[in-house]
Amino acid sequence: MGAWCVEWILSFTVAVFHPMTTALSDQEFALFQRFIFDAAGITLPDSKKALVSGRLAKRLRYHGLESYGEYFRLLHDGVHAAELQMAIDALTTNETYFFREAKHFEFLRRQASAARGRSAMFRVWSAASSSGEEAYSIAMVLADCLGQDTPWEVVGSDISTKVLRGAARAHYSLERARDVPTDYLRRFCLRGTQEYQGSLLIERSLRQKVHFRQLNLNAPLPQLGLFDIVFLRNVMIYFNDNTKREVVARVIAAIRPGGHFFIGHSESLNDINHDVQPLAPSIYRKNP
Fold first, then answer.
1. Which of 15, 154, 192, 274 has its CA 20 to 30 A from that of 73?
2. Looking at the annotation, which residues are catalytic?
3. How far apart are the first and last CA of the chain?
């Protein structure tokens, strides 16, 4: 599920170049506020009405509908089950890039280096991985620090099946890789040529160590095993306090005692959870 954000330019472009016959009413907006809260625990303030209108406009056009109310009824008619996921995908967007928040990756490097040579697998979960840049950044660090001496894996999850399909392809524009260390670009990425000029593909052996799956953090989690480190960054800002407590409790339960939990720099666990202790800004250690 990752760090969701509002892409105002995108929603504005949709609204301007694809006008609807009817606008999104306050009553219809309230229906979709409840819909995305129930589905993903995301609280949409009234200021996001334009976002909802822009994101769902093309779904109305696809189905030939004239109002957002009709689309809401279609989502719950029991016939268009696949459309429910498409609506969730439309309303949950993550903006991410490689090696975002460098201090987290410096800490990851130290932890992985300290684990080199152990027999137990070193596991990291990118719990809101979106299009995969975070998960592959983690994998590059682990491949560099652990190599063949220690088994390791990265699990990436998100609520959106659309972004996970992109993550599995592992094909990105070079612009999104501007913060990847030069040595990592050489070792772990294949630069595109001809029609793929300006893009890169994550190298196959690295891709094989990263496993993506669709998960809703706002629901009971499947058995994932225990992780040494979990990244859950820039996600909680979209949850109310009760949802934060529930999501964080689920995620921390998947961290081994003494493991670590990363959140976004604008987020805090104050009064949210007491099973972890702060080590540094946005970095926590689970109680032994």
1. 15
2. 55, 158
3. 27
